[in-house]
Specification:
Blueprint lengths: L2 H24 L9 E4 L2 E6 L15 E6 L5 E5 L6 E4 L5 E5 L6 E8 L5 E7 L3 E5 L5 E4 L19 E4 L5 E4 L6 E5 L5 E6 L17 E4 L6 E6 L4 E5 L5 E6 L9 E3 L2 E6 L16 E5 L5 E3 L8 E2 L2 E2 L12 E6 L5 E5 L8 E5 L2
Antiparallel strand pairs: 1-2, 2-27, 3-4, 4-5, 5-6, 7-8, 8-9, 9-10, 11-12, 12-13, 13-14, 15-16, 16-17, 17-18, 19-20, 20-21, 21-22, 23-24, 25-26, 26-27
Length: about 350
């Protein structure tokens, strides 16, 4: 090899070795950024670079849930004490951050009261449920289940989610505890409970994991829709706790239900193995149901298929997500997907295609 050729070879080798470092410094585009996911009328472009947060200033561990206020701001709950809530605009810029010192922030619900004032309900797995203003001032804390007569001292309480009825009553899903849905009035007085732990494959009205709750106002009367994550189900109840109906989503370990327009959205945390024997961590997607409880799209998952009226096994199709813990639907129909146990990633934005 001539001296010139040797110099050219060494130069190209050094450049090749430096390329990964330069890409990392510049911020290489993550896999599947820009991918098109979803089906039918619900197709989206994946934006993994939406969030503009400074990781040093606003770190996250798990991004659990997100909601949008009337003025368009997006509120994210995390499980880090230093920033329980991060506030974004729809372009991904961090507008604010605050904390109530919660050690295991998990659920976040937004409710607009009769006078138009909006409040956030933060649920912490340690047993705390707090009503707060949008700028982080606590105005109400619900009593612990063991302190208000709902539970005995031996019954574990680890709430995961709240839903607020039109009259202001508060429903709390004890998804990591004793599997009841607790009912409080708007002042925080305990009223009743329903549900309880079940070990049966089918047991309407009982839960293996009552992970999420929401008020469904799409019908003639408001109903409480509850996630039964381990059984891959959504179940609807009257506001008094009477079971109305359920839908089985084969293979989907659904998180909380999110009602937007005529549709129900949910993040799928985990997924089924192809042999359908047990859940497979890191195989999540988003699922969308219409007003007839039929799955119409699975962004990141396989296209929903029905045979003789029965929904077939749903699996991840494109590995865009790991464990989708929540989905927020904004006023334009774009989605923001929060993930659990996914390498400290911020929410991804899914831009809906026309």
């Amino acid at each position: 090899m001539s001296p010139l050729s040797r110099r050219s070879f060494l130069a190209s080798s050094i450049a090749a070795m430096a390329a990964p470092r330069l890409l990392a410094q510049a911020g290489a585009t993550p896999a599947h950024h820009g991918a098109i996911v979803g089906h039918g009328e619900f197709r989206y472009r994946v934006d993994k670079l939406w969030c503009q947060a400074d990781k040093a200033k606003h770190p996250v561990k798990d991004c659990h849930e997100m909601v949008q206020s009337a003025d368009g701001r997006l509120f994210l709950i995390t499980n880090l004490k230093q920033n329980n809530v991060l506030v974004f605009d729809v372009a991904g810029k961090v507008l604010d951050a605050w904390t109530l010192g919660l050690s295991a922030g998990h659920g976040l619900t937004l409710h607009r009261e009769a006078d138009g004032t909006e409040y956030l309900y933060l649920t912490d797995n340690s047993g705390r449920v707090i009503k707060a203003t949008l700028d982080g001032k606590a105005v109400l804390e619900l009593p612990h289940a063991q302190k208000c007569g709902a539970y005995s001292d031996k019954e574990p309480y680890s709430p995961t989610e709240t839903a607020i009825a039109p009259n202001g009553d508060i429903y709390v899903a004890d998804g990591y505890g004793s599997q009841y849905v607790l009912h409080f009035d708007k002042s925080g007085k305990y009223l009743s409970k329903f549900g309880g732990k079940s070990t049966q494959p089918t047991n309407p009205g009982k839960f293996m994991q009552a992970h999420g709750v929401a008020i469904d106002t799409r019908g003639p009367e408001p109903l409480l829709v509850c996630t039964e994550r381990v059984r891959n189900e959504f179940n609807w109840f009257t506001l008094e706790g009477k079971h109305v109906r359920g839908v089985y989503l084969h293979g989907a370990y659904v998180s909380r239900p999110v009602i937007a327009g005529k549709h129900l959205y949910s993040g799928v945390c985990f997924g089924a193995k192809p042999d359908d024997t047990r859940m497979w961590q890191g195989r999540g997607f988003v699922t969308i149901l219409d007003e007839h409880d039929r799955v119409v799209s699975n962004p990141g998952g396989q296209e929903p298929k029905y045979v003789d009226g029965r929904l077939q096994l749903m699996l991840q199709d494109q590995p865009v997500f790991n464990n989708c813990h929540d989905v927020c639907v904004d006023t334009r129909g774009d989605l923001y997907v929060c993930q659990w146990a996914s390498g400290n990633v911020y929410p991804y934005k899914l831009h809906r295609l026309a």
